Amino acid sequence: MKKNFKEALRIALIIDTEFGQDEIEDHDVVEDIDKILVPIDYSVYSKNACEYALGIAERLNAEIMLFHSFYFNVMPLITVAEPFTYQVSTEQSLTEIKELAEKNMMDFYLTLKNEVDKRNIQQVRINYHLTHGIPEEEIISYCDDYNPGVIIMGTRGHSEDDEVLFGNVTTKVVEDAKVPVLAIPEISKYQGVNRTNILYATNFDKSDIKAIRKLLSLIYEFDVKIHCVHIGESKWDSVLLENLKNHFDEHYSGFEMECALVEGNDVLKELQKFIDDKRIDIIAMNTHKRNFLSQILNPSLTRRMLFHTHTPLLVFHA
User: Fold this and answer.
1) Which 8-state DSSP code applies to residue 17?
2) How far is the C-alpha of 140 from the C-alpha of 148, rounded, in Å?
3) Which phi-psi region, left, alpha or beta, contains residue 95 (left: φ > 0; alpha: ψ -120 to 50)?
4) In 10 A of CB 24, how many CB atoms?
5) φ, ψ for residue 310, nearest 5 deg
6) Residue 40 has pLDDT above 80, yes or no
7) What is the DSSP letter of 13?
8) Was domain 35-185 assigned CATH 3.90.1150.10?
9) What is the bridge-based pairing of β-strands 256-262 and 35-39?
């Protein structure tokens, strides 16, 4: 079934569902992932993200592109006596920062490449790209040229200051990237990509059909179980959840799916309990939603999800 998944995916594009007309758009079909973009800053959590990237790249025979953008913010200095002295100092600083960035990138690249050779990982290519500019802007810009299938980036959260520092970059990439983003918390430890439990949060709108299709396009090479979850209490929620399950069974019978209706007012608390009970490996979210998931993706709650959970977060547009 999985070998013929792409063809089944194209057929499913023209199927009307109980959720309404499923319109065909070019970006609804996710091509084979042969390129993975990994933004790094040479930290521990960047190395952690690379562990996930290696595991996924090995299964997909994909290239890993390490990406770093160093940023030097020059604040104007008002001086009359020695304007030329400041100009030379700034130029020297920029040169030093660039040289340091190049050295760090090369060290990181060689370390990862040696790890690939040591583990005898086959069919994984590693490359790197170094540039200068505001990190989140450069990541988005480079995506247009490189066209990766997914972005994998690490996050951290030891303090409020850390959350603001890195959270802004992650949130901006999640919001603006046209490709899926897999955010890896620092405390998340790579366990391999054998049997994987994925939580997909739904609020029962038309975009669920496209979102599930995109999700399956990303993970069809892996052994996965999808837990489709809705936070709610009404009997109508149960009916809608059953309809979604029936659609999934009809069109994607080669995959295992379990639906659950979780009652509770505290979205984050109930989701975390479900994640722990079911040993969820990845949380999948669709940014197209404007109600339930908009609560999760608002700035304050996003930071809580990204920086205070051990579970990787896969975010994509549908």
Assistant:
1) B
2) 11
3) alpha
4) 10
5) -90, 0
6) yes
7) T
8) no
9) unpaired
Q: State the burial class of residue 262 (Cβ atoms within 10 Å of its Cβ: 0-12, 13-18, 19+).
A: middle
How many Å apart are CA 205 and CA 183, to the nearest integer?
Answer: 25
Q: Is the dihedral of CA 154, 55, 123, 112 positive or negative?
A: positive
Give the H or E element holding residue 136: helix 135-146
Residues 6+ apart with CB under 8 A from 62: 33, 34, 35, 36, 56, 124, 125, 149
**Which residue type does 90 have?**
T
Q: Are the CB atoms for 73 and 45 separated by under 8 Å?
A: no
pTM of the model: 0.78
Q: Which amino acid is at 81?
A: A
Q: What are phi and psi of 211, to 5 degrees?
A: -65, -45
DSSP 8-class letter at 20: B
Residue 3 has what DSSP assignment?
A: G
Interval 244-277: pLDDT, tens: 888 888 888 888 888 888 877 777 777 788 888 9
Helix (H) or strand (E) holding 303: helix 299-307
Strand stretches in 72-148, DSSP E:
125-132
In this structure, are residues 58 and 173 in contact, taking their beta carbons and an 8 Å threshold? no
Provide the residue type at 278 as one letter: K
2-30+194-316 folds as Rossmann fold (3.40.50)
How many other CB atoms are found less than 10 A from the CB of residue 137?
15
What ranges do the domains of the chain cover?
2-30+194-316, 35-185
Q: What is the distance of C-alpha 162 from the center of its chain?
A: 19
Q: Give tens-digit pLDDT for 292-317.
A: 444 444 444 444 554 456 788 888 87
